[in-house]
TrEMBL record:
Coiled coil: none
PANTHER family according to UniProt: MARR-FAMILY TRANSCRIPTIONAL REGULATOR, TRANSCRIPTIONAL REGULATOR, MARR FAMILY
Record's protein name: MarR family transcriptional regulator
Tree of life domain: Bacteria
InterPro entries: HTH_MarR-typ, MarR/SlyA-like, WH-like_DNA-bd_sf, WH_DNA-bd_sf
Pfam families tied to this protein: MarR (PF01047)
Domain HTH marR-type intervals: 18-154
Length: 177
């Protein structure tokens, strides 16, 4: 059963500051996900991978090793998408499958040394571009922005976890969840 849509907040319930934050995040997302931007980043990093592969490598680097289903959940994609991308990364030598120590029948995906180096080069190239763009910011402004971004992401993740654990309301005369 599809999830029950959340009630729409009234226009008055959303503050102008939140509207501006949402607009800025949309602009950042657009800028960072453009194909041309990705190609330039990959050229600077010397890593010839598509966007899906980079997203998977970054996620594994943050939490490795994980089962494909866990990766799919964290990335918000179908498990088959993770399986195809992991196979591509396995062929290119960036990841390997290893037995899950808690369940030998299951496998987890782990970065190889080549995968760790690729993530490091991608992060370095991205950070360099950011450093150039933010060159006129003071260290205090950069620190404040970093602190606020981390706080925002943590709050988004906490809110997302709350939504994931909520049970849908019972349907009158029907079954719940």
């Amino acid at each position: 059963m599809p999830p029950t849509p959340l009630p729409r907040p009234s226009a008055a319930a959303v503050t102008p500051e939140v509207v501006e934050i949402e607009r800025a995040l949309s602009r950042i997302t657009y800028l960072s996900t453009r194909a041309r931007q990705h190609e330039r980043l990959m050229a600077l990093a010397g890593v010839p991978l598509d966007r899906a592969a980079v997203a998977l490598l970054r996620q594994i680097a943050e939490t490795e090793p994980l089962r494909p289903g866990e990766l799919a959940h964290r990335l918000g994609v179908e498990a088959s998408h993770v399986t195809r991308t992991a196979q591509q990364l396995e062929r290119s030598g960036h990841v390997v499958r290893v037995p899950d120590p808690r369940d030998r029948r299951a496998q987890r995906i782990e970065l190889t040394e080549a995968g760790r180096q690729a993530v490091a080069r991608i992060r370095e190239a991205g950070a360099h571009g950011m450093q150039v763009a933010l060159a006129d910011w003071t260290p205090a402004e950069l620190g404040q922005l970093a602190t606020l971004f981390h706080r925002m992401v943590d709050d988004f993740l906490a809110h997302s976890a709350d939504e994931d654990t909520e049970t849908p309301p019972a349907v009158p005369g029907g079954r719940s969840g």
